[in-house]
Recover the amino acids of this structure.
């Protein structure tokens, strides 16, 4: 049967017209009552050629052979067509699908089109460096020497290992930065600062940064190890059957805990230190927040308190010292992050600190909450990112929210599922520590929803900020129902949703149409310098096969409707 038959034409017309007519209806934003099956809404801002490109690219990425060999094919295309034709080919296909433009000025028309449809932008300079193996290994070798000399008690999870030095291995969904000197860190900070300024020019928005881009990673490993050592001591002293925030230590319980761990600390030291540890509640008892946030890496008072004597009479600390070199590394990283946070606070922009591998995360959490304490007084400026596929994420989130309450600051959280699962599991299995990742997808979803509910309540009660970063339809729908549960309007200013450019338009534009704070990550940069980013997008679409297939079918429906009726754009009813 040909598409020109009157019967089929009328059927298509009824279906296509009803879809496009819905665009101009007043969107009665009933929470959770969202339709992610309406191509007229999803692709309202796109030209027909862009629709055809989307169909082609998503179809291309459905072939495993192409995705697995995307870098080789890119090099072959460049060699075959030459530089100029290669650039034109990329802009007509993959680059055009996932990259907004070459620079801040070139992307402005895209930003304007999306904003007209209720979708705002998160600017992301997508240039990723191609670091050599030698460049990656240099700081690792230096760190290994430092560990052997100063750090023999560091926890295995938080040591540097040659076989895992290249963090790009098995992490196709996230960018990786490597230390290449202080000048390079300053250069990266300046790029992030340009994004802050550009977002301010748009009137509002977010900027995402990675701490590993701003400093040496070895101090992040060591700080994470020390924080875990402190947490282990607290857990050993308290009843672990109780919820984390309900575990408390009186002075007598603290002394008993020292004896239980065979720690040789004098009563004079206990009498001096215990009142100093009771910092946030000053009620004569210390909890996990007092216990951990009393610790200052550059001062390391816990090194004096927690010492153990071996059978030969030698004392050794249960908590490591920070070296002078590491103090300087942390100071320079803090300084760069602080400059970005200060600029964001002044310009009305929010700064999202991305999550990274679990062995960096305790330190990243610590430094990010420190910035929250300084800049989140009136509004949520600094956001920490929580990866819900990690088993300890809910505990960290509870603790950080409670810390924000005690310091009377506006908490900020971005929730993601996580981007490092394969690498995390391989590293844990190879080195021999417990797998930090939830056992299955269902457990991760349960954690995500529990974290979402926890933060959403904080939004309602204390004006926290929440970014739901997800391409999953059910997760987004659950979030809108959670907003309804806590009485938050769809356009609540501190609850936002984020998806990547070129992916999940059917989610982003449906949210925007219904008045939610919808955002698209808008990567930009020259063709040759964003190839690593594009390679990761190919892998991400392969990893989201069902969602990518559903989106491709929506694109095909829209393309068929436009070609059938000769429209260059969706018509308004």
């Amino acid at each position: 049967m040909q598409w020109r038959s009157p019967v089929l034409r009328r059927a298509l017309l009824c279906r296509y017209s009803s879809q496009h007519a819905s665009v101009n209806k007043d969107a009665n934003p009933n929470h959770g009552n969202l339709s992610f099956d309406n191509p007229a809404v999803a692709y309202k801002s796109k030209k027909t050629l862009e629709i055809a490109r989307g169909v082609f690219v998503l179809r291309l990425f459905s072939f495993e052979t192409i995705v697995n060999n995307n870098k080789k094919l890119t090099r072959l295309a460049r060699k075959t067509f030459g530089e100029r034709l290669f650039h034109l080919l990329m802009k007509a296909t993959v680059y055009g699908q996932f990259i907004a433009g070459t620079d801040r000025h070139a992307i402005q028309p895209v930003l304007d089109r999306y904003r007209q449809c209720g979708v705002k932008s998160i600017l992301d300079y997508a240039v990723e460096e191609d670091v050599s193996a030698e460049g990656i290994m240099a700081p690792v070798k230096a760190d290994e020497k430092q560990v052997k000399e100063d750090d023999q008690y560091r926890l295995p999870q938080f040591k540097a290992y040659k076989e895992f030095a290249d963090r790009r291995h098995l992490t196709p969904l996230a960018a990786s930065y490597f230390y290449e000197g202080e000048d390079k860190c300053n250069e990266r900070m300046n790029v992030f600062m340009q994004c802050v300024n550009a977002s301010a020019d748009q009137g509002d928005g977010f900027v995402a940064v990675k701490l590993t881009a701003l400093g040496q990673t070895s101090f992040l490993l060591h700080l994470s190890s020390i924080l875990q050592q402190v947490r282990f001591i607290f857990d050993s002293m308290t009843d672990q059957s109780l919820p984390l925030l309900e575990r408390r230590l009186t002075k007598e319980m603290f002394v008993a805990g020292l004896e239980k761990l065979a720690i040789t600390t004098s009563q004079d030291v206990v009498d001096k230190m215990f009142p100093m540890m009771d910092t946030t509640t000053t009620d004569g008892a210390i909890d996990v927040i007092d216990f951990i946030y009393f610790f200052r890496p550059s001062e390391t008072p816990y090194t004096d308190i927690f010492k153990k004597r071996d059978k030969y009479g030698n004392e050794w600390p249960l908590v490591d010292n920070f070296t002078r070199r590491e103090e300087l590394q942390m100071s320079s990283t803090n300084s760069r992050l602080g400059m970005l946070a200060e600029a964001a606070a002044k310009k009305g922009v929010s700064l999202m600190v991305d999550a990274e591998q679990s062995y960096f995360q305790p330190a990243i959490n610590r430094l990010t909450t420190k910035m929250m304490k300084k800049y989140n007084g009136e509004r949520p400026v600094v956001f920490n990112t929580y990866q819900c596929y990690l088993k300890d994420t809910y505990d960290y989130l509870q603790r950080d929210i409670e810390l924000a309450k005690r310091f009377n600051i506006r908490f900020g959280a971005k929730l993601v599922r996580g981007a490092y699962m394969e690498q995390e599991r391989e590293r844990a299995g190879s080195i021999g520590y417990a797998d930090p990742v939830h056992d299955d997808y269902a457990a991760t979803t349960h954690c995500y929803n529990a974290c979402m509910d926890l933060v959403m309540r904080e939004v309602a009660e204390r004006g926290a900020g929440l970014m739901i970063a997800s391409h999953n339809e059910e997760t987004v729908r659950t979030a809108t129902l959670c907003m309804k549960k806590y009485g938050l309007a769809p356009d609540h200013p501190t609850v936002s949703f984020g998806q990547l450019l070129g992916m999940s338009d059917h989610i982003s534009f449906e949210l925007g149409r219904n008045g939610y704070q919808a955002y698209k990550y808008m990567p930009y940069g020259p063709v040759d310098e964003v190839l690593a980013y594009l390679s990761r997008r190919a892998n991400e679409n392969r990893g989201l096969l069902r969602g990518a297939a559903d989106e491709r079918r929506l694109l095909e429906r829209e393309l068929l409707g436009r070609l059938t009726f000769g429209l260059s754009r969706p018509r308004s009813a």
Q: What stands out?
A: DSSP finds 23 helices and twelve strands in the chain. The CA atoms of residues 414 and 534 lie 23 Å apart. The mean pLDDT is 82. The first strand starts at residue 119 and ends at 125.
